[in-house]
Specification:
3-stranded parallel β-sheet, 11 helices, Rossmann fold, 58% helix
């Protein structure tokens, strides 16, 4: 299955040192150049062009459909716009995407997506992590990941915690 990621899932997991979760769940992840650029600015030591090349499971691609990207930029940031465009070009089976506006637009294009919370639940179900709560708490405390109280409780309930 082809997987494309936006910036948020990669950046937030990198901040807490848990990129392994994405690597375990998906053998290969594709990102557009705009996402690579956003990651390099936010976390230059972890996502410089040289560092990305060392992550064998992560591949950077150029988006070919510039018209689609330009149209998406009216509502989304560059990373989200290119991630959606790349997903359509690659006929991705899954898009890693957290932001609500991006999800709404991805849905209009018929793209299947999952956010960081869904990935954590999936990682626990597949035995890649023993518990979701410590990772979720670390995302909130260290990465500044915002989770509303109802969603927090629902994620832990779905994870059986």
């Amino acid at each position: 299955m082809v997987v494309v990621s936006n910036t948020s899932p990669l950046m937030n997991l990198a901040v807490i040192g848990r990129l392994d979760i994405i690597e375990c769940l998906y053998d290969a992840v594709n990102i557009p150049e705009a996402v690579a650029h956003e990651l390099a600015i936010a976390l230059p030591e972890q996502f410089s062009s040289q560092a990305i090349k060392k992550l064998a499971w992560l591949t950077v691609h150029s988006v070919k459909n510039h018209q689609m990207t330009e149209a998406l930029l009216l509502d989304l940031d560059a990373g989200e716009a290119e991630a959606i465009a790349l997903s359509t070009e690659m006929k991705a089976g899954l898009l890693l995407l957290d932001e609500r506006r991006g999800r709404n637009i991805a849905q209009r294009f018929g793209l299947k997506f999952i956010g960081l919370m869904g990935m954590l639940i999936e990682a626990k179900r597949k035995g890649h992590v023993p518990a979701v709560k410590p990772i979720l708490d670390d995302l909130i405390a260290t990465a500044g990941f915002w989770v509303d109280n109802r969603l927090y409780a629902r994620v832990l309930q779905e994870a059986g915690e």
